Amino acid sequence: MRSLSPLPLLLALLAGAAPARAVEPVKLGALLSVTGPAAFLGGPEQKTLELAVDDLNARGGLAGRPVQLLVKDTGGSPEKAVSLAKQLIEEDQVFAIIGPSTSGEAMAVKALAERSGTLLLSCAAAEVIVKPVARWVFKTPQNDGDAAAMIFEHLKGQGITRVALLSSNTGFGKAGKDQLEKAAPAHGLQVVLSETYDKAATDLTAEVTKVKASGAQALVNWSIEPAQAIVVKNVRQLGLGIPVYQSHGFGNIQYVKAAGPAAEGVIFPAGRLLVAESLPAANPQRALLLAYKHAYEARYHEEASTFGGHAYDALLILQQGVKVGGLDRARVRAAIEATRGLVGTAGIFNFSPTDHGGLDASAFLLLTVKDGKFVPLAK
What pLDDT sits at residue 162? Predict the structure, then answer.
């Protein structure tokens, strides 16, 4: 009998072999406010995750498996966030969830993450998300309490003693209002007015008129919505010459563009991403910040924001956890909780069993708006 030559023999063997089994992807959920009043947060977060996941998959994925990103647009609604979180956990069976974008949404899904044992890496800032600590919940933005203290220390240094507060009726706004009102006396400040406005407000003239009548020497606004731009425009339209401070929720240049010339001189605390080019070469964050910033801006042709950075940090933290714990959820959770000295866009993360935020006041700088750009505030 004539024997088969090597090539036909190989083809025959391959034809009879079982088909290669496709590698199952690691499903990663993302709850983001891509549309709605918090779109300036969720939009950059979605773009960042798409960019970062593409890069991660090009380098082999997580634990040698490709990552499948499942983005759910919450529109900034806590109720919708809960529904979509259940879908990601129960139907899609995701390994972890990044987001939500806003504090109210994060608080709404926190208990669900705990009950299901699903890692939740929140991109929202309010400290109540991680205080008290929940085993499966972490967050990447800096703390609102540290932001409030930094603003008040600067006010005190300017000899200001009377301050007016405005805040939106969101989870972030409420948490910030509580922090500001609680911290003011310790900094020698009197809160002469504290008003809450609707997150969808398109005109805040009535609230700013009250600020003007209050005799306040400075205004602190705490929100994440487009109302941040409306506040400063109304302040200038009414001829109110007092300094305006914003929360770290102001860290997207789109708010400056929306406010136009009225934004000049606004002061706010933020991470170093917005002024990465001005950092000294020895700064431990500089290389990472510039790499992320340049990659984002080259792909999307828009300036990077701190909010996109929060999503970048969430994926970075998850990668660190998987590097140590593989794809075992419990081991990954424990590894994240033990992470120390991890350089991210928001700061250098040092988590512990009692701290699931991982950042302290050193993660902040005071910035201001000059000629339509973010620059470090001169000391």
Answer: 98
